[in-house]
Design a protein that fits this description.
By secondary structure, this protein is mainly β. It has a domain of 60 residues. It contains one helix and four strands; from the N terminus they run βαβββ. The chain has a four-stranded antiparallel sheet, with helices on one face. The longest helix has 8 residues. It is globular.
């Protein structure tokens, strides 16, 4: 498995499925991170984002209309000294 990257997909309607997104990206359903799921970014414009195994993305840089990425997926962690627990 390769590095996980973010891909943005536009135009799949109100309730896109993982299968819909996978087809548009040209990857198998298993390439999409099921735990992350599909995150709706803009309801009105039907834009969502998913995490995808970069090794499974098509090697050419041209994607279907409505697809953009890949974008990095940096790990998000707390910053600074942890605050003491009040309990």
């Amino acid at each position: 498995m390769g590095e996980m990257v973010m891909m943005t997909v536009r135009g799949l309607g109100d309730n896109p499925t993982v299968a819909d997104v996978a087809k548009l990206l040209g990857v198998p359903v298993a390439a999409i991170d099921a735990k992350f799921g599909i995150i709706i970014v803009d309801v009105e414009r039907h834009i969502c984002t998913v995490r995808v195994d970069s090794d499974q993305l098509p090697k050419d840089s041209e994607y279907s209309e409505g697809v953009s990425g890949p974008y990095s997926d940096p790990k998000i962690a707390p910053f600074g000294t942890p605050e003491p627990d009040d309990g």
